[in-house]
Design a protein that fits this description.
Strand order of the largest sheet of chain B: 5-4-1-6
Largest sheet of chain B: 4 strands, antiparallel
Low-confidence stretches of chain A: 96-100, 327-332
Oligomer: heterodimer
Structural class of chain B: alpha+beta
Helix content of chain B: 25-40%
Helix content of chain A: 25-40%
Shape of chain A: elongated
Number of strands of chain A: 20
Number of helices of chain B: 14
CATH architecture of the largest domain in chain A: 3-Layer(aba) Sandwich
Strand content of chain B: 15-25%
Order of helices and strands of chain B: HEHEHHEEEHEHHHHEEEEEHHHEEHEEH
Number of strands of chain B: 15
Low-confidence stretches of chain B: none
CATH topology of the largest domain in chain A: Rossmann fold
Number of domains of chain A: 3
CATH superfamily of the largest domain in chain A: Succinyl-CoA synthetase domains
């Protein structure tokens, strides 16, 4: 062994022994170093160094108030490099944390509540098998709950909603992607102004579309409460919808209430209508693709999400396209031969709304998420509207609002498909959504060559959103996309093109 | 569920209501009449010689020589079959690391005045080569003899003169001075020596001891930063014992390891041990040693975590946090915050300044451990895996989750919950 042992004695230097042990380990890990120790020069420590083969003559004479840097290395240069490094580490400023909580995250709901005792809402986003158990714990603690998770059995949903009623809290979800509570966006939600319009919705993108349109029309949202897609089914019986109606009824900040849903079960509708009748507040009701039947005097029926938003701010219509908008000519970029319409939606409700509008004009529509009256998916259908957020597209993949790449791939295919005349898109902005969804779409279009289908899109978002509504619209417009002021208008433009053919 | 809540409320009441006082030091056989010839108490759950780890074997052999049951270490090993090995916990006692307790050793007595029970622990031998880390040479044995013949009797006499040292306020002050009572006992050791000083002088005079004896005693107690550890352990045992045997309670009453197995006891399941293979500490090593030399986790000292100190009170002792890999001192509080997720409550008498005087996490609930997947964090010393060498480092270890899962299953079965 030709190992070299060197000691450096720093007179009158004190450091906590544990800090010294850490330092020792760092120095011992340097290349070429066999062992190292940094210790105060007490007789006991010098003994330890001697036993470890780390004591050199310099260290022998160290005093208890001194610090001994001891290194045993393969060769002279490694030993000196190690000493230099040890000295540097000793004099390096200590790294300090930004605050006392550096990196601590509670692992349990209980721990989270202890850390934030005034919290009154729990957002639950865990695999579906565990979501019900966590939601139950939260409800039993008196917390309002938003269950983001999907794949929660309907039986569990029902029992959780009864439990929530017992505890006087709201249970939003399961599969609830969007809520805005007292100005706080939760899940996929947009930055909208606070105001007097309350929204109750069984659909996330529906809430986004209405809240953004209300905001863009100058109104504001008191609360937007998501109920979960099954809430107005016969099984669940509208438990959360009714609880949310009661909550908004009591809320002095809410002056008008918008109720939106995918097609509900008729007997549940009856129960909801009964409750509207009791309310002292005006309601706007939009049940996608279906007519709510007779509504009480304090309620208005809205034909579309945009119409619901208009009525909520006291107007007839708020999504009138600007006069110079290219709408229905289809001459400039349309492929004359193509006849088909393909919708690539990331929002399920927006896909449903498009189906309703096209079917309402007498067209036959196929979809993987068909609303009543629509046909099941068919790749060759004349009008094929796809909900890319549906399970079959999101298995082992993030939702298209987060990861737009699969949709962009499909868009590229459609752009090159001579049978396609119109491609319909929705672009959803807000928290949780991709930072630049328009960018990918524009790129796909820019990369396409020759004649291509008309691309029509609407952008659900606000100027205050992280993606900035006007910038997304400009990016799409520059790429030749016809940007409609609402999802409904996008569908209407498509009708215009079909009619002009 | 209601029976568990009620039982746990009672457990917490007893735990927080404990009033531990260090009252005396006596030879073990005086206070443990059942501890006789050729009986050795060890740390952790029951274990036979054949399964014992190296350092514990070394300690057993050493203590046999110390008690005069064997002429040397080889002789001791040859007649180990004639020795009865029992856990300290069976004798209201606890012992650090190997935890050797035998009849002639002096034990410190902590009395829980709220409940009248007593708990025992031997005197801390200091750092370096010591029996609790498996050391067993002549130097180790002669220190034990000195503790037995000179230091123990003097300390006992001094304690009797004081009428007892109340430990709860002492520990409360230690927490505000950077101790967590497992890896770091500097403050409490100092406070104790300061408080005991006059009584030690008076006791030495009463016993006609010369100044050299007194001086040695003060030098030993004052020079051992871990002197208070064994007192904290007896205190933990004295506090936890009245919490045992509350039907339905899911509160952990003891955690303990023998270098081979880790084990816990739960109030509602009585004195049954739930065991799992012990884990390897993650830590820092003295010069010349590394992980390859380390023995797995060992000792009854986890009683300190069981009452909310040690790893649970890490926030009070930021310097100790450095033991956890690259953990920074500023992250010490995170350990305490995490431990709060598995305890029922906090101890209002033991508070941590840096957490805005939050109390240390108190009353480990097996349900919370299993539900959260958070295992108790334990601060520990690391022994060399071979007998006779001693301490090689210090670090942090997790209690194995399996102990808690087993305990919960048995508790649930006893309560008829599936």
């Amino acid at each position: 062994m030709s190992a070299v042992v060197v000691n450096l004695v720093l007179a009158g230097t004190y450091m906590d022994s544990i800090a010294l042990m850490r330092l020792s380990r760092e120095v011992a890990g340097l290349s070429g170093v066999e062992d190292a120790a940094v210790m105060t020069g007490t007789p006991a420590n010098r003994e330890i160094l001697r036993d470890a083969g780390l004591l050199a003559p310099e260290g022998e004479t160290a005093k208890p108030g001194d610090l001994i840097l001891a290194v045993r290395a393969k060769n002279e240069s490694a030993s000196h490099a190690a000493l230099v490094e040890a000295e540097r580490l000793l004099s390096a400023p200590r790294q300090t944390a930004d605050d006392g909580t550096s990196g601590w995250v509670p692992r349990t709901l209980r721990g989270a509540v202890m850390a934030l005792p005034t919290a009154n809402l729990a957002l639950i986003s865990v695999p579906g098998d565990f979501a019900a158990a966590e939601a139950r714990k939260a409800i039993e603690r008196g917390l309002n709950v938003m269950v983001f998770s999907d794949n929660v059995p309907v039986e569990a949903e029902i029992s959780l909603k009864h439990l929530a009623a017992e505890h006087g809290v709201l249970m939003m979800g399961p599969d609830c992607g969007t809520a805005i509570i007292a100005g706080t966006p939760i899940g996929f939600a947009n930055e909208v102004r606070r105001g007097d319009v309350g929204i109750i919705g069984a659909s996330g993108t529906g809430i986004q579309e209405v809240s953004c349109l209300v905001h863009r029309a100058g109104g504001g949202i008191s609360h937007a409460i998501g109920t979960g897609g099954r809430d107005l089914s016969t099984d669940v019986g509208g438990l959360t919808t009714l609880a949310a109606m009661a909550a908004l009824e009591r809320d002095p900040a809410t002056k008008r209430i918008v109720l939106i849903s995918k097609p509900p079960a008729p007997e549940v509708v009856a129960r909801v209508v009964e409750e509207i009748q009791r309310s002292r507040k005006p309601y706007v009701v939009h049940f996608l693709g279906s007519v709510a039947g007779d509504l009480p005097a304090n309620a208005q029926h809205a034909d579309t999400l945009a119409h619901a938003a208009a009525l909520a701010v006291g107007q007839d219509r708020i999504d009138v396209p600007p006069a110079n908008a290219v709408s229905s000519d289809g001459q400039m970029d349309g492929q004359m031969d193509g006849q088909r319409v393909v919708g690539l939606y990331s929002g399920g409700t927006l896909c449903g709304e498009a189906q309703a509008i096209l079917m309402g004009a007498g067209h036959v529509v196929a979809s993987n998420a068909p609303i009543p009256g629509a046909g099941s998916d068919d790749a060759a259908a004349a009008i094929r509207l796809l909900d890319l957020g549906a399970d079959e597209f999101t298995r082992n993949r993030p939702h298209p609002m987060i990861d737009p790449e699969p949709r962009e791939t499909m868009l590229r295919q459609m752009l090159g498909d001579p049978t396609v005349r119109v491609v319909l898109l929705d672009v959803l902005l807000g928290y949780g959504a991709h930072p630049d969804p328009a960018g990918g779409i524009a790129q796909a279009i820019d990369a396409s060559t020759g004649r291509r289908p008309v691309v029509i899109a609407s952008v659900t978002g606000t100027e205050e959103d992280p993606q900035i509504h006007s910038e997304q619209v400009s990016a799409l417009t520059r790429a030749g996309v016809r940007v409609a002021p609402s999802n409904a208008v996008a569908a209407e433009w498509t009708l215009g093109i079909l009619n002009s053919a | 569920m209601e029976i568990i809540e009620k039982a746990n409320a009672e457990a917490l009441k007893r735990l927080l209501g404990g009033d531990p006082v260090l009252v005396d030091v006596r030879p073990a056989h005086e206070v443990m009449p059942d501890l006789g010839e050729r009986q050795i108490l060890h740390a952790g759950p029951p274990i036979e010689w054949s399964r014992m780890c190296g350092p514990m074997r070394g300690a057993v052999a050493g203590i046999m020589v110390f008690e005069g049951w064997a002429s040397d270490l080889a002789d001791a090993e040859s007649q180990v079959d004639s020795i009865t090995l029992r856990p300290n916990h069976d004798f209201d006692a606890v012992g650090p690391m190997t935890g050797m307790t035998t009849m002639s050793q002096p034990v410190m007595i902590v009395e829980n005045r709220a409940f009248g029970n007593r708990a025992y622990c031997t005197i801390n031998e200091g750092l370096g080569k010591v029996m609790r880390f498996g050391g067993n040479d002549a130097e180790v044995l002669s220190r034990l003899a000195w503790l037995r013949d000179e230091f123990g009797p003097l300390l006992g006499a001094a304690l009797r003169r004081t009428g007892g040292i109340e430990l709860k306020p002492l520990v409360g002050r230690g927490l505000t001075m950077g101790d967590e009572m497992h890896q770091r006992n500097v403050a409490c050791s100092s406070l104790l020596v300061r408080q005991l000083g006059p009584a030690l002088v008076e006791a030495a005079a009463e016993l006609n001891l010369d100044n050299a004896v007194l001086s040695r005693a003060l030098a030993f107690a004052g020079g051992n930063d871990q002197f208070f550890l064994n007192i904290a352990m007896a205190m933990g045992k004295a506090i936890m014992d009245p919490v045992r045997g509350i039907e339905g309670s899911s509160v952990v009453t003891a955690m303990s390891r023998n270098g081979t197995d880790f084990a816990i006891r739960v109030s509602g399941t009585g004195d049954r041990w739930f065991t799992a293979p012990v884990e390897m500490p993650q830590g820092l090593y003295f010069p010349g040693y590394d992980e390859s030399h380390a023995n797995p986790d060992m000792g009854d000292s986890t009683i300190v975590e069981t009452v909310g100190l040690g790893g649970f009170a890490m926030a009070a002792a930021p310097a100790v946090a450095g033991f956890v890999g690259a953990g920074r001192a500023s992250e010490a509080a995170n350990f305490t915050r995490s431990m709060r997720e598995i305890t029922l409550s906090e101890n209002p008498e033991w508070t941590i300044p840096s957490l805005d005087y939050a109390g240390v996490p108190t009353a480990i609930d097996v349900r919370l451990v299993v539900e959260s997947g958070i295992a108790p964090t334990i601060n520990t010393g690391i022994a060399h895996r071979e007998p006779g060498i001693g301490q090689v480092g210090a670090g942090v270890v997790k209690a194995p989750m399996d102990c808690f899962t087993q305990a919960l299953e048995v508790l649930a079965a006893e309560l008829g919950i599936s």
